[in-house]
Automatic annotation (TrEMBL):
Pfam families on file: DAO
Transmembrane residue ranges: none
Domain FAD dependent oxidoreductase: 41-420
Name of the protein in question: FAD dependent oxidoreductase
InterPro entries: FAD-dep_OxRdtase (IPR006076), FAD/NAD-bd_sf (IPR036188)
Species whose genome carries this gene: Trematosphaeria pertusa
Length: 468
């Protein structure tokens, strides 16, 4: 199978529209100044959730430390929040269990606790932010009903739950567990083998991010949309203050600090990230119906080792569903190392038709149908953790990328950690879990990508399954 590795890794023009971006705000095509400044203290590349959170926290952290707010320029290749954040599922769903169980084995209890609570705490932080700043983003706290539909998955979940409970990981205290008939009753899902419930939230990500950007711009941050960064290169060797040249088709900016908030596109500017943060294409739909029961909780549906769907109900009764791997997972080039969000994933659209009727008791006769389908590019990291912190061998450059399709409960605090590192100069004593940090070994060691490894295992072990 020919690979996608020679394809451009930059954002493509003409991305498909998404439900969340049907009505865009005034910041969407914003340029704070007609021309780019020739220099800046900090250049942030990318205006998604990471770029917006960085701008917000850099201003906040500077004020908190009594420092002058630095000159910050945010450069965005397309419209503001036009990447994954403007096209995701809107699920702010911390993982209270599986990641903590895995980190218990690799790093021990203290780090497992940090990894789990780091995600869980972001619900409260976003709730407080939304309330404090009156952000109109449909933020709602919810329970997640996390359903497992296959025996092997159920056994692993049960074993992991025992381990995190035994280790007294704080997020385990919130988890409800049921299995078999009771799991079907709790979830309403036909064939549920087990069911976890725990706290999460859901929201309209585009609106949260554009609020953060608007606030940052009002406090002096310079946002420039339609300004792709084509390279970052060293300035003349005697440059003391501005050691990096950030080049765009419009002009070049001299700066001392560059932060890559570039998600799946990072390797286009930082070649060391090739095979480490890989663009992965995902698909999401919005289902609507007049005569349908109302879903109140959010859901995870674990169907096999590689198939998991997630869904959030919207205040208007529609349901957002993401996943659909059943129909494209085997065709590696259609989704892995693929940064083209100008077309849907081949063959995946039909997956959502009849989804609620197939899975949920009581929905069989509903008229729910697929209204919108869209796609987006995630940055999947090779070891499952984002790369957050100073980039080895690139003094003054930072990464905050690779959140692997799970950025909503990780990004706000990761960006805060980077802002704190830059403002205080202390890169160690920040609230950032150890596996997120970029050690020289993690930076340079080749490690087979977890998604590629799983794909190989599945295609080698499973016969082709019918997709009807
Ligand atoms: C279909 C889909 C569904 C998802 N569902 C969920 C979910 O329900 N819950 C969850 O937690 N996560 C979900 N995710 C993942 C989540 O959306 C991401 O983790 C998160 O949005 C990443 O934010 P970001 O700012 O890093 O990336 P992005 O939002 O992609 O922002 C990166 C920005 O950088 C810009 N950029 C890149 N390169 C350059 C360059 N060279 N010059 C200038 N600008 C550049 C891009 O144009 C883009 O706007 C989903 C993702 C997708 C695609």
């Amino acid at each position: 199978m020919p690979s996608n590795s020679n394809r451009s890794k930059f954002p493509v023009p003409h991305a498909l529209p998404s439900y969340w971006r049907k009505q865009v705000g005034p910041i969407d095509r914003h340029r704070s100044t007609p021309r780019l400044p020739s220099s800046a203290d900090i250049v942030v590349v990318g205006a998604g959730y990471v770029g917006a959170s960085l701008a917000y926290h850099l201003v906040e952290e500077s004020a908190r430390c009594g420092r002058k707010v630095p000159e910050i320029v945010v450069l965005e290749a397309r419209e503001a929040c036009s990447g994954a954040t403007g096209r995701n599922g809107g699920h702010l769903k911390p993982d209270p269990l599986l990641r903590a169980a895995s980190v218990l084995s690799t790093h021990g209890k203290e780090v497992a606790e940090h990894v789990a609570s780091f995600e869980a705490r972001q619900i409260g932080a976003i709730k407080a932010l939304v309330k404090r700043e009156d952000v109109d983003c449909d933020f709602e706290e919810t329970r997640v009903v996390d359903v497992c539909l296959y025996k092997k998955g159920k056994e692993k979940i049960k074993a992991d739950l025992e381990r995190v409970v035994d280790a007294d990981i704080s997020t385990a205290r919130d988890i409800g567990y049921s299995e078999d008939r009771e799991a079907e009753q709790v979830s309403g899902v036909r064939g549920a083998k087990s069911c976890l419930t725990y706290d999460a939230a859901r929201l309209w990500p585009y609106r949260l991010v554009t609020h953060l950007l608007e606030k940052a711009v009002s406090l002096g941050v310079n946002l420039q949309t339609y300004t792709p960064v084509t390279s970052v290169s060293p300035a003349a060797t005697d440059a003391k203050d501005h050691r990096w040249l950030v080049t765009t088709p419009r002009s070049t900016i001299k700066t001392s600090i560059v932060i890559y908030a570039t998600n799946g596109y990072t390797s286009a500017l930082v070649p060391e990230m090739k095979d480490k943060i890989v663009p992965v294409k995902g698909i999401v739909a919005r289902l609507v119906g007049k005569y349908a029961p109302r879903l109140t909780d959010s859901y995870m549906m674990r169907i096999s080792d590689y198939e998991y769907d997630y869904m959030i109900p919207r205040p208007d009764g529609s349901v957002i569903v993401g996943g659909a791997k059943r129909d494209f997972f085997r065709n590696l080039n259609d989704w892995f190392d693929n940064s083209d969000d100008s077309s849907l994933i081949k063959g995946a659209r039909r997956y959502f038709d009849g989804y609620m009727q197939r899975h949920f008791y009581g929905w069989e006769k509903s008229d729910v149908r697929t209204e919108d389908v869209w796609t987006g590019i995630m940055g999947y990291s090779n070891d499952g953790f984002p790369y957050v912190g100073p980039a080895p061998g690139r003094p003054g450059q930072y990464l905050c990328a690779g959140f692997s399709g799970h950025g909503m409960p990780q990004i706000f605090f990761s960006a805060k950690a980077i802002a704190s590192m830059i403002v205080t100069g202390d890169t160690e004593n920040v609230d950032l879990p150890v596996p997120y940090r970029i050690s020289p070994a993690r930076w340079s060691q080749p490690k087979e990508h977890v998604s590629l490894k799983l794909w190989r295992e599945i295609v080698e072990s499973e016969p082709v399954r019918a997709t009807l």
